[in-house]
Amino acid sequence: MFPKNFLIGGGVSAPQVEGAYNINGKSLTVADLKYFEDVKNRKDITNLKTTSSKKIDYALQNESDLYFPKREGIDFYHRYKEDIKLIADMGMNAFRFSISWSRIIPNIDDGKVCQKGIKFYKNIIKECKKFNLEPIVTISHFDLPYKIVQKYGGWKNKKVISLFTEYASVVLNELKDFVKYWIPFNEINATIFTTFVSAGIIADKEDNLLESCYQALHNQFVANAKTIKIAKKINKDFQMGCMLAQATCYSLDCKPENVLYNLKEQEKKVYFYYDLMAKGEYPTYMLKYFIDNNINIAFDESELELIKENKIDFISFSYYMSGVNSLNKNLTSEANLFKLEKNPYLNESEWGWQIDSIGLRITLNDLWDRYKLPLFIAENGIGINDKLEKDLTIKDDRRINYLELHLKELKNAINDGVNVFGYITWTPIDVVSSASNEMSKRYGLIYVDQDDNGNGSKKRYKKNSYYWFQKYLKNHLQ
Ligand code: BGP
Asked: Which CATH number goes with the domain that contains 393?
């Protein structure tokens, strides 16, 4: 049994499920500009992760000939009632979803709140409450309004801090009576790795790309702190979390140079973010990194004060796989925003993500030891090219195996004494893949009849993993 009040649920994001990209006032987002590109080599999607001005122009000039998967999502906008019921019927008690900024303040800087957008999210929460699903709300999940890019050049512009906090404040106030757990930014470390979707930065437009990315990140840290401040004023019991793409990595071997290199990589890609948001200051190793790499961040003392005074209440992260580092940098494995080395002891998914359930236990122990803050697994799951059989079943035994192993290690971590209060599987229902834009990279426990080009009935079918999870929750949730 999991501890009493343990949260177990499923998570989705607005751009990957909603669709209805131009309905009821919503303006265009960066996610809406990603058109479908057929990936020949599933294990190398580097090209898909970087967005150039050429690609954006091409997308806008050829709108009618291209297919934009995130404009369609899985039509959750119209089917949320059916989907939430299916999710609740599995026996889950939590649902993580994100709010789309461009549905709430479509014009960004005129302060006009779109009531239809507010109503849509209130309706989602109403359904959650009907089925006793605790809503966990992400305020920004890879769908920056495109107007922020056009007018302000993305998050590197300090003006975006106040625009974002104005939006966050509307959301916090409107939903204050129904939501306790908030995540201002999804995978905030993605700002360095997928600069366009996370921060609205177009790589070829920057003279010093790394500096622009870290500036954007700094501005997001300030916005995060301001959002926490606003939230606590509304309700001091609100629980505010950070969220990272957790890239747990091992040193290739015990060669001290490799161990040191791995530590430095982990600091830069992972610990830095937790250190800053949990401890409230820039760690010295990062200040050194900035100097060594000619990165000058514009900030003033008041921003650092804000960060110091408004720290997170909990730590959350997505965990899919682990990786390996060595000085050789033989980066052959692609994994959730990172390129890493292969681990000879692990199997990998079709997309090259190295499956490591014990790594989850290691991660939970490590983060608990370092920060002593409650932990929350915001995403965990596996992308598989599931097939709908003739008899309308989906035999996703590999997913069952993946989930079973990870949940076992989660329990082991709890037995180790780690304070973890929730687990969200990515995803309860098939969604458009974030990085590769495919439908065929399916994470769901519920199958959606829709292909990479948007064809299909969109009908929902329960996979074998759905029934498995239902039974698992019956036996493990108090
Ligand atoms: C995380 C995102 C999710 C998600 C997941 C799987 O990066 O927070 O939005 O989709 O990873 O990634 P992908 O869909 O690229 O396989």
From this structure: 3.20.20.80
